Amino acid sequence: MDYTIEITNLTKSFGDFTAVDNVSFAVKKGEIFGYLGPNGAGKSTTIRVLCGLLTPTSGHASVVGLDVTTHPEEVRKQIGYMSQKFSLYEALTVEENIDFFSGIYGVPKNRRAERKAYALKMAGLTGRESSPTKDLSGGWKQRLALGCAILHEPPVLFLDEPTSGVDPIARRQFWELIYELSAAGQTVLVSTHYMLEAENCHRVGLMYAGKLIALGPPDQLKNDMAKVCQLLQVDTSDPLETMHALEGMPGVLDLAVFGAGLHVTVVDASLASTTIKAELDKRGVAIKRLEQISPSLEDVFVALIEAKEREAEGKKAA
Amino acid sequence: MSYRRTRAICLKELRHIVRDTRSLVAALALPLMFLTLFGYALSLDVDHIPVMVRDSDGSAASRDLVQQFSGSRYFDVIGVATSDSEMERAIDRGRALMAIVIPRDYSRRLASGRETDVQILVDGSDSNTAGIALGYANTVVANYALKLRAHGRSTTASAHTGSPVDAQLRVWYNSSLESKNYVVPGLLGVILMIISALLTSLTIAREWEMGTMEVLLSTPVRPGEIALARCSPTASSGSST
Questions:
Q1: Could A106 and B220 be called an inter-chain contact, meaning their C-beta atoms sit closer than 8 Å?
Q2: CB B17 within 8 A of CB B229
Q3: Taking a contact as any Cβ pair under 8 Å apart, which residues of chain A between 14 and 73 contact chain B?
Q4: In chain B, at which end, N or C, are there fewer CB atoms within 10 A of the end residue's CB?
Q5: Type and span of the H or E element at A59
Q6: Where is the domain boundary, A187, A216, A245?
Q7: Closest of A247, A238, A228 to residue A295, by C-alpha
Q8: B19/A96 Cβ within 8 A
Q9: Which of B129, B110, B114, B97 is nearest to B65 (CA)?
């Protein structure tokens, strides 16, 4: 199998703190790989190792077959990187920013005009070349930053939380661009903590406290979850009373408020439905809706992370 | 080292300096400020040395000697002390850098043709200035002594005055021997060095703060290119002022 990004047993520590702990995964050419996890889980650290900005403590990371520790300069010619923070120069105009990145990425002279036009069109900024970058709104800025990161047509793109702080419509447009790039054969590794975005990825990896705790296509992760537990949607006249009633009930693993109702994680859906119904009837709570639903990626991750937390607490107690 | 990459950063840096009023002010006003400050405040010239006189003799001859000092542009006689303690106080307080102490029998000894001592007190806390001041004082007294001797001779016999060989001094290029004239051009280089290092570190700090440095480092740009490209615009803007 031909992998564009390969990470084997990667560990990165800062003093006593291990930001990335023995992580391994590989990303195929043209794949959109979602790198998920709560803040501080080690996503940015992994990406920064892959960009050659940090040296791994142990393990290997390679991009397009080049080891990032031994060939950082060659690797940097092959990648485009968009950092969490806004990565353009605010004092420069749109065009000057494009020209600057075109210069430092070493885009050949005869390709420059064409790449500039492409970046402008992609960002939807054609005709606004001379506006100062600081006057652009968040969505435009992010798209321009992406446009600048791909001026040199890199085979690999690293996007570190590219859509944080961007409104949903701009985020949607941004993802359409990512699909286009992936269709053209570019490999995209994107980190995010928006679970809805994760559903857009071909494959996702979930990081928690420096460890990779789940890896696979979104649908597969959902199916895996269905094997161990199931999800019930419970809408009632009194959500608070319902929570009290269901807490600690045998067969109920977890409760979470979702909108006006509850998501209840249970071992067996049909068995639990009967007991929940009986308990709520006894308490005089009217049931509006009680049915099994298929879990979203968010449910899967919440369940996985809570399982890990319980495990950690159990260890501490022992 | 890539010319294209260096040029791209260089161009961007120039634009930043021109657009960011703060760095523009720093690039233009700081060198000017330094220059005027050094040009006016930093002077190695020793002149107008404040001198206190303690004249115990109070004769025409002693006043004539004091006259030699007050007539020179290197000395300013700031007053005549009526007691030793007053003279000491003037030096302690820093009002006077030097004091001339003329003994009681000064005119009498001169008139009788004997050798006479005059005491010169100098505040040596700034040894360099003190040394130069002593040199001046010595010259003034020596010239005066020569004149007195010549005067004495002319009344007796020969009209031959002074020493047989006399050096005629002429200073070229900086005829007034002002230290400003050589300190300031040298300072230009020093200021340029300070300004370009200062501005460069400022812009690099700003890049880290904004997060653009991380992106810059993830591109094929080499650290050497960043350093060179950043120094040159700041150095040129500094030198243009």
A1: yes
A2: no
A3: 48, 51-53, 73
A4: N
A5: strand A58-63
A6: A216
A7: A228
A8: no
A9: B110
d(CA B120, CA B30): 44
Question: How much is the pTM?
Answer: 0.73
Distance (Å, rounded) from C-alpha A265 to C-alpha A247?
11
In contact, B26 and B72? CB cutoff 8 Å? no
Residue corresponding to tokens 């997060």: B211
A19-30 burial string, b = 16+ CB within 10 Å, else e?
A: bbbebebbbebb
Tokens of B48: 């107008």
Question: Could you give the 3-state DSSP secondary structure of residue A230?
Answer: strand
> Which 3 state secondary structure label does DSSP give A260?
coil
Q: Is A234 helix (H, G, I), strand (E, B) or coil?
A: strand
What's domain B49-147's architecture? 3-Layer(aba) Sandwich (3.40)
- From the list B12, B217, B222, the residue facing A92 with the nearest CB is B12
Same domain? For A196 and A156 the reply is yes
Which ipTM did the prediction report?
0.73
Q: How far apart are CA A188 and CA B85, in angstroms?
A: 89
Contact indicator for B89, B112 with CB cutoff of 8 Å:
no
Q: Which of A100, A104, A111 to mutate to test the interface with B (most CBs of B within 10 A)?
A: A104
Where are the domains positioned within chain B? 3-41+180-240, 49-147
